[in-house]
Description:
This is DUF2288 family protein. InterPro entries: DUF2288. It holds the Pfam family DUF2288. The protein has helices at residues 2-9, 17-25, 38-46, 50-58, 67-74; strands spanning 12-16, 29-32, 62-63, 80-86, 89-94. It has 97 residues and is α+β, with helices and mostly antiparallel strands. The protein is globular. Strands 1-4-5-2-3 form a five-stranded mixed β-sheet. The chain contains five helices and five strands, in the order αβαβααβαββ. The longest helix has 9 residues, at 17-25.
Amino acid sequence: xxxxxxxxxxxxxxxxxxxxxxxxxxxxxxxxxxxxxxxxxxxxxxxxxxxxxxxxxxxxxxxxxxxxxxxxxxxxxxxxxxxxxxxxxxxxxxxxx
Length: 97
């Protein structure tokens, strides 16, 4: 578990919307609520903790971005996110100003 956590931590970083757009276009972007720890979510998904992940989905804490959100981000391409690559997905979380 620690190895997985360390491995995923190595794929985390800050990304501008421009970099994330191709992932959104292939429907591979997953938006994580700011109240959750991005690394914890990545570990839960990679470890197949389906009960936890399903609860987050049901509560709207992890979801695909809406067309409205994508439209907003397209008009502000320097918008920044914390991102975690978890093939084939990219988990993103709003960077709070």
